[in-house]
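As a representative case, we now present a protein record of this kind.
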Amino acid sequence: MATRTPIGTFGAGRRGISTAGWLLRGAAAGAAGTTALNAVTYLDMVVRGRGASSTPEDSVEKLAETAHVPIPGEGETRQNRLQGLGALLGLAAGIGAGAAGGLARASGYRSSTPVGTALTALGVLVAANGPMTALGITDPRRWSAADWISDLVPHLAYAVVVRTTLDAFDRP
């Protein structure tokens, strides 16, 4: 039996999809959302003529230092590895966040589109910026309005695509 709450409904889905099925659907939705996030970010770079963020590479470097795992190479070779690992870290975060959304669906959670989109955006913002803040790579309290917009808009695009994709998987 479904239970209504202020943020959504918990209960069995309409299609009888297994937990593993929702996990995979969520991962696919996360991959689609990550593609949207990247596209919006690159479009922002083109429109404003800004450079790429170094926070993904900085995160990899800090995580490697913390785990005492060296990144091999020197100079440009090492920097290229950091850039590649930073991109892969972003993909893993986006796919993982989508998988978490799929698990929420598997638990029977459903919400209105605005609530689901907002919760997804909030979740992915925390998942992306929380570790970087904890590692001392960034401090959102010091961001300018332009910094916030350049972070919020791509994550909102991510949330819209993830939510839309999960909804499409849940249609009868």
About this structure: The first strand starts at residue 3 and ends at 5. The chain is about 70% helix and 5% strand.
